[in-house]
Amino acid sequence: xxxxxxxxxxxxxxxxGLGVGPEPPQIxxxxxxxxxxxxxxxxxxxxxxxxxxxxxxxxxxxxxxLYGFVPGTFCGERVGALMEGSSQGDGDPLDICVFSERPIxxxxxxxxxxxxxxxxxxxxxxxxDKIIAVLGNDNLWKAIEDIEAFPEILIERLRHYFTTYKLIxxxxxxxxxxxxxxRKHAEVxxxxxxxxxxxxxxxx
Length: 204
Description:
By secondary structure, the protein is α+β, with helices and mostly antiparallel strands. The protein has helices spanning 77-81, 152-164, 183-201, and strands at 27-34, 40-44, 51-56, 66-69, 88-89, 95-99, 110-119, 121-123, 126-127, 130-135, 175-177, 181-182. The chain contains three helices and twelve strands; from the N terminus they run ββββαββββββαββα.
């Protein structure tokens, strides 16, 4: 069957079959697993590439932004070394939270995300950074270039969501989140995750 490139006869795996983005580490692809309207935790099934239902959320919190990962990244030794107190990366693709003015209600979509910062999250001693970005061509957020110009209340909502979304009543939380970092450090984290991916899987 003769088809024009870049047509894929079969669906590419979202983690391993898609590129990191058009201008990494400044503008990256985000594969969206969850929207702000989801009360069930969805995440990519690493073997098949389909979304899997992970668990219903225990709390009443909604994700405050689109939530997914950057294809072609891996949180391994290099990512872990960038965070104080971490023993290693969490072994997953790099997480990303994307804000947009207009509601995006569908998951399993790909978008261009412009990186502005991140949250340094430790989960059980492992680095689990949450990159913060805005939709690449968003009309409202297009002037935002760094986390300092981003509304603090939205960062607070991200912090609250990620400190409570795994919380089990009566058990001590294993999650801690430090102060938000800016775009330059976020780009360093992204570059480290790309290098970790290349070492783990041989490149994209």
